[in-house]
Structures are given as structure tokens and as C-alpha cells.
Amino acid sequence: MSDWCPIAKDYNPLKAGSIDGTDVEPHDRAVWRAMSARYKPNKGVVGDPLLTLFVARLNPQTTEDKLQTVFSKYGDIRRLRLVRDIVTGFSKGYGFIEYKEERSVSRARRDADKLVIDQHEVFVDFEQERTLRGWVPRRLGGGLGGKKESGQLRFGGRDRPYRKPINLGPGAMLERGGGRGEPRAREDRHRYRESDWGSRNRRDYRERDRDDRRHKDRR
Predict the structure, then answer these.
(1) Among 5-14, 38-47, 65-74, 142-151, which stretch is predicted with the lowest mean pLDDT?
(2) pLDDT tens profile 22-69
């Protein structure tokens, strides 16, 4: 637990699909896809990855000029690339910004995250495709963070970091009724509730019959 970190140091699809990084098997098909993917970073991307920021959740109407204006206040920009659809030319809602100095990258990551640009709150983080070993993009079932609440959540990133796992140990698990006996205990509690409700219903019926008989005798 001493080397535990809420942010992923190496990318592992199985851990990214777990809220605390302790899952031992995938819980959705996307994780399976990411585990079987053989992804290699795009060799056509140029620039220093350590000086590059990833900017996402952009308004589809946001242009390169607007990004240049907003992010240039944090430092001198060397390259700016807004990712567009190769067929339609429309923005995909994310881009990459390379600065000339490391302090500019740190400042932009700190201050520009959750900044509102063209009525959209943007997400800003370091580039991970070329810096995080084993990286698999979201389109292949990987990625980190995001706001998709359909069950295919990814953890270990800035937006949704890992939660610290609880290490109870075997003794504590036995005291709490854990291990193999826990499901049985839950079933017993569930059965107890059902029997309790059943007895309550039977008592209610008996009381109603008794009241009905009394009412008939009075008449």
C-alpha cells in the first residue's frame, strides 16, 4: 500500500476499469477489447510529449484561433492541433497543445482545466499516448476518466482517480463474517426478512378475521 497512487503510472485496462485498481477480471466488453488491443502510438505525431497538453470536451464550433487565443496566455505555444474528422472536417472535440517551456505546461494544466470556452467546460491534462506505457485509447475500450455513466467507467486519470483500496486482512474479514460465509449470511438475513414479513402478513389477516367476526356478532 505504500506505493499506492491515485493516478496510473502504467496503463493497465483491467485496473483502469476498476474503481480502486484491485479487480482481477474485466467487468465489461470494452475492457476485454482494450486488453486484446495491440495499439501503437501514432508515429506521425511530432513534438515533445512532455511539453504537450491534451484538451478535450471542446465545443464543436471552437476553432484553432480560439484555442490559440485562450491558451497562449499561459505561455508561448509551439504547436497546436485540433483533431478533425478526416471525411467531414468537423472538430472531434479535442486537441493537443505543445508549449515551448515546461512551466507553461504546468501552468496551463493547473489553471485551464474546467475553463469555460464557447459555453463548454473543457478538460485539460498531460498527453498520455506517448508518455503512459501501455496506453490504449478510448475508441479501443481504454482511456482514463471521462463522463460516460453507462457502466464503462475508467479510473486512474485526473478526472476520475483511483480510490484507495481497503486492506482489511484475513482476520478482519472473518470477524465481519467475510470470505465464504458472507454470502450465506446475507441469504440468511434475506430469508429472515421474508419470513418476518410473512408472519406479519399472517398476523394482519388473523386480526382482520377476528374484527370481521366481532362485527357480525354485534349485528
Answers:
(1) 142-151
(2) 898 988 888 999 999 888 888 888 899 999 999 999 999 999 999 999
**Listed ranges 68-77, 129-138, 162-171; the one with the highest mean pLDDT:** 68-77
The closest of 94, 80, 126 to 107, measured between CA atoms, is: 126
51-73 burial, b at 16+ Cβ within 10 Å, e below that, comes to bbbbbbbbbeebeeeebeebbee
- In terms of Cα–Cα distance, which of 141, 122, 149, 115 is closest to 54? 122
Query: 206: Cβ–Cβ under 8 A, 6 or more apart, which residues?
Result: none
- Which is nearest to 143 in space by CA: 161, 156, 126? 156
Tell me 162's DSSP state: P
Give residue 199's Cα distance to chain centre. Answer: 45
- 97-124 pLDDT, tens digit per residue, is 999 999 999 999 999 999 999 999 999 9
CB of 41 closer than 8 Å to CB of 175: no
* b/e code 122-136 from CB counts within 10 Å (16+ = b): bbbbbbbbeebeebb
> Alpha-carbon distance 72 to 62, whole Å?
15
**Residue 145 neighbours by CB distance under 10 Å:** 19
CB half-sphere exposure, 192, CA atoms < 13 A = 6
